[in-house]
From TrEMBL:
Higher taxonomy: Bacteria, Pseudomonadati, Bacteroidota, Chitinophagia, Chitinophagales
Name the UniProt record assigns to this protein: Zf-HC2 domain-containing protein
Region (Disordered): 32-60
Membrane-crossing residue ranges in chain numbering: 92-113
Record field: compositional bias (Basic and acidic residues): 51-60
Keywords linked to the UniProt accession: Membrane, Transmembrane, Transmembrane helix
Length: 118
């Protein structure tokens, strides 16, 4: 029974996506075109695939792709904005701390200067 299954799998003669696209765009020789048409007529699945590709209008696909890209861009911008809005430390606290450090440095300098001269 396993041999029968292997035979079935090896006998599949489906067209590739590339072959279907070449067929739809008319990029095949008459002999190749005839062979593809015979394979399409013998397989309902391949016939459905060909019909689906034929129905897919290139402009509609490009429009859909542009819409998807636009939505993705908007989502990325929203994520960037969320990252930029991290809480910033209070500026007045930073200014007061810096001022106190400078005052301590000046006082330390004055104490050392008085000790040497005094």
């Amino acid at each position: 029974m396993a041999d029968n299954l292997l035979d079935i799998l090896n006998q599949r003669d489906d067209l590739t996506e590339q072959e279907l696209l070449q067929y739809l765009h008319g990029n095949l020789t008459p002999e190749e075109r005839n062979a593809v048409e015979q394979r399409l007529s013998s397989s309902d699945m391949m016939s459905d695939a060909e019909e689906g590709l034929r129905m897919a209008d290139e402009k509609k696909m490009q429009h859909a792709l542009a819409d998807l890209n636009k939505q993705l861009s908007l989502q990325l911008q929203q994520q960037r904005r969320k990252r930029k809005h991290k809480p910033v430390p209070n500026q007045s606290l930073i200014i007061v701390t810096t001022f106190l450090i400078l005052v301590l440095i000046v006082l330390g300098f004055l104490v050392i200067y008085k000790m040497k001269n005094g």
